[in-house]
Write a structure and sequence with these properties.
The complex is a heterotrimer of chains A (about 140), B (about 90) and C (about 650). Chain A is α+β, with helices and mostly antiparallel strands and about 140 residues long. Chain A contains three helices and eight strands. Chain A has a two-stranded antiparallel ribbon. Chain B has three helices and five strands, in the order βαβααβββ. The chains are: A alpha+beta (about 140), B alpha+beta (about 90), C alpha+beta (about 650). Chains in contact: A-C, B-C.
Amino acid sequence: MPYLYADPLECTGCRICELLCSFYHERVLNPKKARLRVVRLEPGIDTPIACRHCEKPRCVEVCPVEAIKVVRKTGMSFIDERKCVGCRLCAEACPYGAIFLHPDKQVAIKCTLCGLCVKHCPVQCLKIVEEEKIVGLQV
Amino acid sequence: MAKVTVQFYTTLRDLTNEKQTEVVGDTVASVVEKLVKKYGSEFHETLFDKETGRIKPFYNILVNGVRINLREGLNTEVKDGDVIAIFPPVGGG
Amino acid sequence: MRFPYKGYAGQILRVNLIKQTVKKQALTKKMARGYIGGSGFAARMLYDEIDPGIDPLGPENKIFMGTGPLTGTFWPSSGRYMFAAKSPLTGIWGESHSGGHLGPELKYAGYDAVIVEGRAEKPVYLRIENEEVEIRDASHLWGKDTHETTRTLHEDIDKEAQIACIGPAGENLVRYASIITNLYRAAGRAGIGAVMGSKKLKAIAVRGTRSVEVADLDRFMELSEEAHWRILSHPQAQAMSRYGTPLLVGYKQTIGELPTKNHQTGVFPNAEALSAETIRKNYWAKTRSCFACRTMCKKINTSRTGPYAGTLCEGPEYETIMAFGTNCYNADYPSILYANLLCDKYGLDTISTGCTIAFLMECYENGIINKRDVEGTDLSWGKPDAIIALIHKIAKREGIGNFLAEGSYRAAEKIGKGAEKYALHVKKMEISGQDGRTHRSIGLSHATASRGADHLRSLVTVDQLGYEEVAARRWGSDKLPDVCDPYTEKWKALVVKTTEDVYAVRDCLVQCWYCVSWPPVLWIEDFANILPAATGEPSFGKIDELLLIGSRIVNLERCFNAREGITRKDDSLPERFLKEPMPDGPGKGQVVNLKVMLDEYYELRGWSLESGIPKKETLEKLGLHQEAGKLEAMGKLSRNCVV
């Protein structure tokens, strides 16, 4: 399952990715409407957090209205905003903290891997990782 | 001909892997020529503008701490013991 | 009614700590048109609301915290904010800007600015979350350093909140206490941290979830994108991304302007130990950025060996390296790193702290004070332990620290015995890491800036660095080469005056100094392009209009200072720069002829040559009729005004 990854030692914490994410998705300048967050772990670490599109997504399991669906072809999961009731169970269940509540619509939002933030990162530390290569294991 | 010390900073220091070097020349221009010969095409490309063939505008060359633009530019004569510094200019506080 | 311009939030928060009330005030179109934002709003509001002669540490002082119309948007390096108040260090206009992430957050919460008045009885902090604004008890925070305070507030409120706070130095009313955000970002100069401390205001915590709207979103994003790429592809900006402000150490050393031993000279024997290249190689850990900035000049450094092993923090910047390093004759980087971290935690301005210590060291060198006077500390030049020990004492006002906390000017007055000549200040603010002898225009900048010995309000880089094409474009090629010659007074008044007006506009946007002042990527034309796209106000697209506003703000701050008694005699420099020839380096033998530059500057500004106070016609041309009236009533506009 592909997901957005960034090296926490490369990320400078500028949050241009957050700003542009809100712009590209909703034509607003508002990091709280971004589908990713740059988390600061002081001292010194900045790490962009975005949905990992887990193989066994806990968010899908806990959603009481089945608003999050897995697309079989890619294995990625997407939130249907029309079905979401804003209960936040998915955000609590996400082990990665990558689901956020939209401040106005009060629905869950998470990274859809559109990739538009990737080309704007000043240090090019955002990458779409296609697959996990696990050393030593035959897959 | 004068024996001068050339000091490198930031990008050029990274490139040449040296803080400074000794060069023999009579003007700043001849010193720079010697440096290009010593450090090769990457040095030349870093310092010179490909289109105009001149030293890139933001690079400052100083002789004993005075910018060559306030003297005779690249034709500034050098004497024994002079210190030439090549800098990408910095400013502020 | 919605605010007619975009970019702005349209609201100012007014907090009264005596009545414990919070009011939301609408921003007026008149204010925005006349003063743009940030610095401009601060000048207007504080001039109107603070009476002359009040005690900066008393309840009548007010603190202004503000942003500009571009703050929180994609415009590069616009994610800053600023503070202003009457300064307890100088007794005149006090202002300090800071990077980090708080500026945008304030806009996202729905406010352009906050103004705090009065004084709380017990320690409080201000919590802002969109419409919810509360004054909360901070007794559990009082006494904590800025790092503990930030951590605690993150746990209490929200880990996403942006927090500006003071440390023990602000609480103890050290006259140059700073305000710290994001652990390492400082609104350093002018002692506004002490004003917060005097109001028992420990912190301001902000969280916001709104958007910043702009008038023409597509054009705005197009212009911003273009500006971003201009910065990203600029080689000097790239150098800044790699090394940060310590880049200056090597260059200043080469041109002989690296303040050494309390500005005695500009040549430091071991500059290499503090150079950008040495730091990058041995101490650099990571790079950091302010909000929406591509320059990413912040560096996280760490030291792994020696007595300060384990120190990790952002910085130190060039000024801090100067203040605790070269100016104290100290070449030990780890101790400077540690000093920087202490100043972040205590909330102390590194420039004033370091320069006050350097002042004391010169007094010690000259036998004006001895070991007994300083509790047995050996204050010979270059002793890192002594520097560290003094920082602790100053922050806590212990022993000698108690009167060093008053600043070098007041400390020199107390010491007497000729110490005054070693207190290098302008209007009681310590001189920063420049020297007019090797860079004439900064001599004039230091002498005339509204907040005292300021290096950011009008620092011209063309004569320091030689941007001949930039100088020709801005002032005409007929001014070359003198305009770029750092050793002549010629044309310097012109460049300082025009630069000061542009920077005044920059400070209204609360745009970062870097990539505007240096490297010269963005300038007034770019502000004239982006402001109409952001706000929808066409007059902001006229450069002349913007420069008029800039000049208005400079003059308004001058009126503020004139009311406090500032005249030409205060626009001066320490004797060191006027009379003592530079002893070493390329600038050997140079002194500053301030009079000729000052005369020219006053002419250009339309200020009285005798008193340095703006003439009536100058003020009236800028729409400052009431201010002119006030100065006239005070007798300040007459030819007999005391100089």
